Amino acid sequence: xxxxxxxxxxxxxxxxxxxxxxxxxxxxxxxxxxxxxxxxxxxxxxxxxxxxxxxxxxxxxxxxxxxxxxxxxxxxxxxxxxxxxxxxxxxxxxxxxxxxxxxxxxxxxxxxxxxxxxxxxxxxxxxxxxxxxxxxxxxxxxxxxxxxxxxxxxxxxxxxxxxxxxxxxxxxxxxxxxxxxxxxxxxxxxxxxxxxxxxxxxxxxxxxxxxxxxxxxxxxxxxxxxxxxxxxxxxxxxxxxxxxxxxxxxxxxxxxxxxxxxxxxxxxxxxxxxxxxxxxxxxxxxxxxxxxxxxxxxxxxxxxxxxxxxxxxxxxxxxxxxxxxxxxxxxxxxxxxxxxxxxxxxxxxxxxxxxxxxxxxxxxxxxxxxxxxxxxxxxxxxxxxxxxxxxxxxxxxxxxxxxxxxxxxxxxxxxxxxxxxxxxxxxxxxxxxx
Length: 434
Hints:
Interacts transiently with the RNA polymerase catalytic core formed by RpoA, RpoB, RpoC and RpoZ (2 alpha, 1 beta, 1 beta' and 1 omega subunit) to form the RNA polymerase holoenzyme that can initiate transcription. By secondary structure, this protein is α+β, with helices and mostly antiparallel strands. The chain has helices spanning 13-17, 53-59, 64-69, 87-95, 98-109, 112-128, 139-155, 213-219, 224-235, 240-247, 251-268, 273-276, 284-298, 302-308, 327-338, and strands at 309-316, 323-324, 348-356, 359-367, 374-385, 388-395, 408-409. The longest helix has 18 residues, at 251-268. It starts with 12 loop residues before the first helix and ends in a 25-residue tail after the last strand.
């Protein structure tokens, strides 16, 4: 039986190297500036042995030209390109919509890293076509049209993204583990969901029901054009006419695609989902549960982990194909990785509370046997209902830079009271628990 990690699984360093995090975007004009437009604390080093600290820094930077254009002196709301008098102003106008376009590309693609690439491509197309924009619609609408078509082009070239529980039956804890090189669904950090400050671009608040993992996994089942129709109509509140125009089809065909998409959602999503979906911020109950969850992992206490899981809890851990459908199976797989006497012992954990997809989550750090440093070990997104964890999705290849966290964990950081404060603004890592 291979060694066990976040959810009773894991891979050795050679396997980890086979699944590197995407190094992200290269600035469009070939320049790399100092600083960071998203306010992220980008760490040095890589837990995956592929991308360097400099490469990760480039992932969240733009060109000097675009950075300067985004300064407060260039404030546009419903301006059109027809009223923009300079390339600098146009750059500022695009950058004001960057976050919501990235979220749109994430809903379409199911991957934060791919959404970064798709957003970049959409903005490059907009930049190249800026002289031909007639101003008959708002810049925001124009960008959504470009981004949707960029996504449709990309989705036509690859299979849909999925989670392991969609690909086969639940596994035995002692079963063999294998990593599959397929497109996997990934998490999106809440830190990058909302604008850094209120604005008047018309962007809507990203509600949990339209970004949580259950919703994202379900809409990936839809053919790309159905997916686009559903997102445009039900998430972005576009009209049937505008949706049909974007998709290059009739209103009747666009409405038909929407209805088929809605039927799939009704069939696949939990029937009482609207009743148990939690607020967009971490509640006091979730904070208390996170404390217990983190303490259980950091003390390697299997019984304490059992106390925070529901009996029918599910656990997935891409890129591995196996998944577990009960608390007993999760604990059976997790036990060996907590036991120093086991050949599958992987070391000790430290965890930092974060949020992803409007859900509570933890960023994991692992100190392997013989090492003195806790190194990044991905992100685990939790679904909480009735005071217990009902689902765990561990993404061991997820980079921590988008969450404002470093690649190594410092033991000397102070305790924090609220998971929402574990962001880049703290300037240091935070821990829940004593």
